[in-house]
Amino acid sequence: MSTHAFTIDDLKRILHTSAGVPEGVDFDGDILDTAFDSLGYESLALLETCGSIEREFKVSIDDDTLTITDTPRTLLRLVNHQLVAPSAS
Q1: Which residues form the Carrier domain (predicted)?
Q2: Euclidean distance between CA atoms 88 and 63, whole angstroms
Q3: Given 1, 45, 81, 84, which residue has the most CB atoms within 10 angstroms?
Q4: Would you place residue 89 in the very low, low, confident or very high pLDDT band (cuts 50, 70, 90)?
Q5: 3-state secondary structure the chain
Q6: Is residue 2's pLDDT more than 60?
Q7: pLDDT score of 48
Q8: Looking at the whole model, is its pTM more than 0.85?
Q9: Residues with Cβ within 8 Å of residue 14, at least 6 apart in sequence
Q10: Are 73 and 31 in contact (CB under 8 A)?
């Protein structure tokens, strides 16, 4: 498990590494509530990104949850919720 919260900077880094940087999108602006498809990321790019997040932060993002994760804010909440939730033993 990661020892720090999953931040917007982490998400931007992983998005850029996993799926590239779409042209014409200002990632320095406030993108928290901008839909991923408006940012230029389709479902395949998000799957790749979520796979990278799972590996780096040791969380699990299932396909059903991914379908309702349409903005960076919702993805940040999802990952951070798992980072602070006690693990089931």
Answers
A1: 30-78
A2: 20
A3: 45
A4: very low
A5: CCCCCCCHHHHHHHHHHHHCCCCCCCCCCCCCCCCCCCCCCCHHHHHHHHHHHHHHHCCCCCHHHHHHCCCHHHHHHHHHHHHHCCCCC
A6: no
A7: 93
A8: yes
A9: 49, 52, 53, 56
A10: no
Supply 30's token pair. 């406030």
Distance of alpha carbon 62 from alpha carbon 41, whole angstroms: 18
> What region, left, alpha or beta, does residue 72 occupy, with left being phi > 0 and alpha being psi -120 to 50 degrees?
alpha
What is the chain's length? 89
- Sign of the Cα pseudo-torsion (16, 65, 77, 5, in order): negative
Domains and CATH numbers, the chain: 8-22+32-84 (1.10.1200.10)
